[in-house]
Write a structure and sequence with these properties.
The chain has 280 residues and is an alpha+beta fold. The chain contains eight helices and twelve strands. 32% of the residues lie in helices and 15% in strands. The two termini are 21 Å apart. About 10% of the residues have low confidence.
Length: 280
């Protein structure tokens, strides 16, 4: 349905640019009549209700912006859609990636298909500029996270902010991945990694490929996780661009989005357009 609406919106935009007025109508799965989409150069409206948020409704996929933290726990049985195995990188004589994979350690790993495709593109782009990146962690099940968390507690006697509680791990979404320089593949990770040219390149370029730095510096009070310059989270290019350009966390993005949804619905915007973006 979201793709259908995107196509309808694009068709209407082309009509408006030609100097015509048009109304795009569609029916949702419940046979509800779906609103007209009106797009101008600086305003998007649905059913003549402005969508006053920098990222368009059509540019957000609910599963890609799913939040997992201490306040919003994933169920024990949650498994992300489209999980795929991560292939190992193979290069031909011309230096081309023939496997659609990445370099990784401690694997094998799985990621959601969209995340893997974006990660391959990011690593290929980094390699072209002389930076070699390695995947060090991908999808983790609730059970695996529980095991890691309990081991950490047993070792240190308290939650030190380095291993997320089960259900709160971004890795369980299948969209979070730890990406490190070669010299850090066999070292314990800490914030000193931010000094490396590879991680600085990631911070500057990750949004181009739909990634954000999930746990940025000076935001520990928001994320309740220590600064992790290696932890990328795939959210899609439009959302990633907005988050990174404005120095936000995914939590802060969701707060802004919730306010925009509330205003949209209060002004008469169709709830059916935004209900799947609302957090439970």
């Amino acid at each position: 349905m979201r793709n259908l609406l995107r196509m309808l919106a694009l068709l209407l935009l082309l009509t408006l640019l030609a100097g015509c007025n048009a109304t795009a109508l569609a029916e949702d799965d419940d046979e509800e009549i779906y609103f007209s989409d009106v797009i101008s150069m600086d305003m998007i409206t649905y059913n003549n209700v402005p969508w006053e948020f920098p990222v368009d409704i059509m540019d957000m996929e609910p599963e890609l912006i799913r939040l997992a933290n201490k306040q919003t726990l994933l169920p024990k049985d949650f498994v992300p859609q489209n999980l795929v195995d991560v292939p190992k990188l193979r290069l031909n004589d011309a230096g081309e990636n023939t496997s659609g994979g990445v370099r990784y350690v401690d694997g094998p790993w799985q990621l959601s298909r969209e995340c893997l495709q974006a990660l391959v593109a990011l690593c290929d782009a980094a390699r072209a500029e002389g930076y070699e990146l390695y995947l060090k962690s991908g999808y983790r099940s609730y059970r695996t996270q529980s095991y890691m968390y309990e081991n950490r507690l047993e070792k240190y006697g308290y939650d030190d902010g380095w291993v997320a509680r089960p259900g709160s791990s971004d890795h369980q979404t299948g969209l979070g991945c730890d990406v490190v320089p070669k010299k850090w593949t066999d070292r314990g990770m800490n914030e000193d990694m931010a000094r490396e040219p590879e991680t600085q390149w990631m911070a500057a370029n990750c949004a181009r490929f739909g990634f954000i730095l999930r746990y940025p510096a000076d935001k520990e009070d928001v994320t309740q996780i220590n600064y992790e310059p290696w932890h990328l989270r795939y959210v899609g290019v439009p959302v990633a661009t907005y988050i990174m350009e404005n120095g936000l966390t995914l939590e802060e993005f969701h707060e802004e989005l919730a306010a925009a949804i509330e205003a949209f619905v209060a002004a008469g915007g169709p709830v059916s357009m935004v209900d799947d973006l609302m957090m439970d």
